[in-house]
Amino acid sequence: MADPAIQTHGLVKRFGDLTAVDGLDLTVPAGTMYGFLGPNGAGKTTTLKMLTGLLRPTAGRATVAGFDVAAQPLEVKRRIGVVPESLGLYDRLTGHEYLELVGRLHGLDAATVQDRRARLLDRLELAEKAGTLTVDYSGGMKKKLALAGALLPDPQVLFLDEPFEGVDAVSARTVKDMLRTLVDRRGVTVFFSTHIMELVEKLCDTVAIIDHGRLIASGSLADLRRMATADAAASLEDVFLTLVDAAPRTAADLDWLAGA
Predict the structure, then answer these.
(1) Domain at 97, CATH number
(2) Which candidate, 47, 50, 29, 28, places its Cα nearest to that of 38?
(3) Residue 260, pLDDT above cutoff 60
(4) Which of 115, 128, 186, 212 has a 20 to 30 Å separation from 100 between CA atoms?
(5) pTM of the model
(6) 256 belongs to a structural domain
(7) Three-state DSSP state, 10
């Protein structure tokens, strides 16, 4: 059996008195689409930042592509692509220039960068705006450019935090097809965090749910259904709400909305 693409043991991150991630144990098989879910403030983004080397764990250990994220951060970064929720693109670079910078940082030769850049920009419908400064891109265009940058170095593991936010329906379909192809044909591992349950339900092979920094469930959708309910057809949204013990709130006590 292949080694896991991502593995954590007792991963902890504290900010003063706040424990954002609390003893997290994850095992992400290589070549899978892995959904990472949780309520707001559950510790999802903090976990992603530790796995990608942007935050140092307070305690515990994590490996990505076989390398320790704390002890071997450069080896990890050579093998991953990242689309963070807060993109942090270089506003005064054009799309062309941004992707060239990414390619050079990863040590790719000029011909490879030029070829991959042209194909990614075309596939993501950014070719016409490739000479425009990214400060003038829409939110969806910035998200697609960040994805192009993450894919250009041909990563083994791809981390995505809300990757479809602001992306139009046509481009979203293209991105979903690209991700599925990467997993099925190339064996890339996609670690995918979002609040859009329908996307996870359609795309992901395995799902993990965290709450208050702790893992509360993981497995296939069928596994999660068995943990949460006897209904084998329950939606991921219903399963999620049951597992995090979060009853939906109504507008009944808001009299101006409820019509009272």
Answers:
(1) 3.40.50.300
(2) 47
(3) no
(4) 186
(5) 0.92
(6) no
(7) strand
